[in-house]
Amino acid sequence: MSSLSWWLEVALRIVVIFAAFLVVPLVVGQMEHKAMAHMQGRLGPMEAGGFHGWAQLIADGVKFAQKESVVPDAADRTVFQIAPAVALIPYLLALLVIPIGPGTQVGVALDLGLFFALAVMGLAVIGPLMAGWSSGNKYSLLGGLRSAAQLMAYELPMLLSAASVAMAAGTLSLPGILDAWHWYWLPWQLIGGFVFFTAGLAELQRPPFDMPVADSELIFGAFTEYTGLRFALFLLAEYAGIVVLCLLTSVLYLGGWHGPFAEQHLGWVWTLVKTFLLAFVVIWLRVSYPRLRADQLQKFAWTVLIPLSLAQLAITGVVRVL
Amino acid sequence: MTDEIPENEGAGRRKLPGAGLAQGLATTFKTMVTKSHTRQYPDVAPELPPRTRGVIALIEENCTSCMLCARECPDWCIYIDSHKETIPAPTAGGRERSRNVLDRFAIDFSLCMYCGICIEVCPFDALEWSPEFEYAEYDIREMLHEKPRLGQWVESVPPPPALDDAAEDPKEISLAQKAAAKKQAALDAAAQQEGTADGDA
């Protein structure tokens, strides 16, 4: 009996996380459609679904599913075909360990949760690299290599700033970090939060760090040769990545389920509110800023973000010792 | 981030680092919370100015088939056919009158360039601008609007704008007033004459 309820619970957790994985990125995508449109003085999608185009992304998905999936002759078939999955699945795995509420409101309360989440997020960047290498197209290859260079540069500040939070909490478990969280961590870990969020944006290749998919010079970077459902999976991976990054940032730096009131009962609401606010910031940055050049990207990572994250580590260490 | 841009903006006023970035964010946010420019046209009718040049309406009763519009039309898109009819004399021994009867009046809107010259030249105000504009067709030949269709547009012709406060009265009114004043004066004179005649008696 207890074994049956255990299985039920596992199944329920998996179903909930999988549903969130499919729905929340679409909500963020729709938010991007609408927020970006209004920031540019437009209305955005208004027709699909009737009410303010709410079903636009579902319509897009149906369209992508109907399209022919073309694999170029020059492509490395197997690698080309599994690349979208490699890009997408790590974000699903990362969602498993991120707590959205106090207590047991987490897929898996892993002791190494932070380490696991960052490791699989780093893995996700292999997807574009595989896509770029296997497409047999010079634009794809350039895009893939730019992705790799960007990953190399931005993984370090991301890890260093995340390490600062782990140091402050004295644990790598994400629920553990949230249990140790106090409001004064907000100013204490402010620099780290900025570095983590910025480096995360760069890892997701979101504007203004979208050099690897710069459409004016590389068509669509590593995804140039993709069509149909596989292309849609890459796009879904981008939005799933935004969700995971915003969730992680809110858990590590903004207190996750901590809030001014009703923490125990409505903690998950606080997590979601913070996540969507951060997702809005991601969209806002995309609309506001032009793309950084490849050399500017590298210089920003190595001369600004890494020193800042080291400074954050030093501050964390000093405060801990005091 | 990397290249030093020469600081030649502003008169020596130094900005905080990141002020430009904040300004960019402020601009997009401000645009987001102001009303967007998109018009939902098929769902929401556009607000057109009252004298919009949409389509040309024909008030058939005013037309004398004088052909001025057809001859002034720069691209010859107005077709007029008419014939002459004689009206019997109204009184015995009088002269028969003749008048033009309009058989066909058509405007080919696939040729019309909406210059409005026909409306300007019409001496009897038989042509007017209507703000209606939704008369696209799948077949170009159906852009040729015949008399009944041109007549339908009259309903949507807006009334002419009101005169200025200081303006003279329209001719119809001033003429009528003048005639009325003349008649009154004549009546008054007659009454006075009668009065004096009574006094003399």
TrEMBL record, chain A:
The record ties this protein, via InterPro entries, to:
NADH_UbQ_OxRdtase_su1/FPO
- Principal place of residence: membrane
EC primary class: translocase
According to the UniProt entry, its GO molecular function terms are: NADH dehydrogenase activity; oxidoreductase activity, acting on NAD(P)H, quinone or similar compound as acceptor; quinone binding
Give the CC-aspect GO terms: plasma membrane
Q: Name one GO biological process term.
A: aerobic respiration
**UniProt-listed Enzyme Commission number(s):** 7.1.1.-
Task: Give its localization.
Answer: Cell membrane; Membrane
Q: How does it sit in the membrane?
A: Multi-pass membrane protein
What's the domain of life for this entry?
A: Bacteria
The signal peptide, as residue positions, is none
Q: Which residues cross the membrane?
A: 6-29, 79-100, 112-133, 154-177, 183-202, 231-255, 267-288, 300-319
Swiss-Prot/TrEMBL keywords: Cell membrane, Membrane, NAD, Quinone, Translocase, Transmembrane, Transmembrane helix, Ubiquinone
Keyword Membrane among UniProt keywords: yes
Q: Which reaction does it catalyse?
A: a quinone + NADH + 5 H(+)(in) = a quinol + NAD(+) + 4 H(+)(out)
Keyword Transmembrane helix found: yes
Oligomeric state and interaction partners are given as:
NDH-1 is composed of 14 different subunits. Subunits NuoA, H, J, K, L, M, N constitute the membrane sector of the complex.
PANTHER family named in the record: NADH DEHYDROGENASE SUBUNIT 1, NADH-UBIQUINONE OXIDOREDUCTASE CHAIN 1
Q: What does this protein do?
A: NDH-1 shuttles electrons from NADH, via FMN and iron-sulfur (Fe-S) centers, to quinones in the respiratory chain. The immediate electron acceptor for the enzyme in this species is believed to be ubiquinone. Couples the redox reaction to proton translocation (for every two electrons transferred, four hydrogen ions are translocated across the cytoplasmic membrane), and thus conserves the redox energy in a proton gradient. This subunit may bind ubiquinone.
* Family membership noted in the UniProt record: Belongs to the complex I subunit 1 family.
What is the protein's name according to its record? NADH-quinone oxidoreductase subunit H
User: What species is this protein from?
Assistant: Actinospica durhamensis
In the UniProt record, what gene is named as encoding this protein?
nuoH
UniProtKB/TrEMBL annotation, chain B:
Keyword Endoplasmic reticulum part of the UniProt annotation: no
Localisation per UniProt entry: Cell membrane
Q: Which amino acids does the record list as binding [4Fe-4S] cluster 1?
A: C63, C66, C69, C122
Q: Which residues form a coiled coil?
A: none
Q: How does it sit in the membrane?
A: Peripheral membrane protein
* Enzyme Commission numbers on file: 7.1.1.-
- UniProt keyword annotations, A-Z: 4Fe-4S, Cell membrane, Iron, Iron-sulfur, Membrane, Metal-binding, NAD, Quinone, Repeat, Translocase, Ubiquinone
Cofactor(s), by name: [4Fe-4S] cluster
Question: Can you quote a single GO CC term?
Answer: plasma membrane
- Ranges for the region named Disordered are 152-171
Q: Where is the 4Fe-4S ferredoxin-type domain?
A: 54-83, 103-132
One MF annotation (Gene Ontology) recorded for this entry: NADH dehydrogenase (quinone) (non-electrogenic) activity
Note one Pfam family from the annotation: Fer4_4
- Chain sites annotated for binding [4Fe-4S] cluster 2: C73, C112, C115, C118
Keyword 4Fe-4S (UniProt): yes
Catalysed reaction(s) here are:
a quinone + NADH + 5 H(+)(in) = a quinol + NAD(+) + 4 H(+)(out)
Q: Give the UniProt family note.
A: Belongs to the complex I 23 kDa subunit family.
User: By its UniProt entry, which HAMAP family does this protein fall under?
Assistant: NDH1_NuoI
Reported function: NDH-1 shuttles electrons from NADH, via FMN and iron-sulfur (Fe-S) centers, to quinones in the respiratory chain. The immediate electron acceptor for the enzyme in this species is believed to be ubiquinone. Couples the redox reaction to proton translocation (for every two electrons transferred, four hydrogen ions are translocated across the cytoplasmic membrane), and thus conserves the redox energy in a proton gradient.
Q: What is this protein called?
A: NADH-quinone oxidoreductase subunit I
Q: In the UniProt record, what gene is named as encoding this protein?
A: nuoI
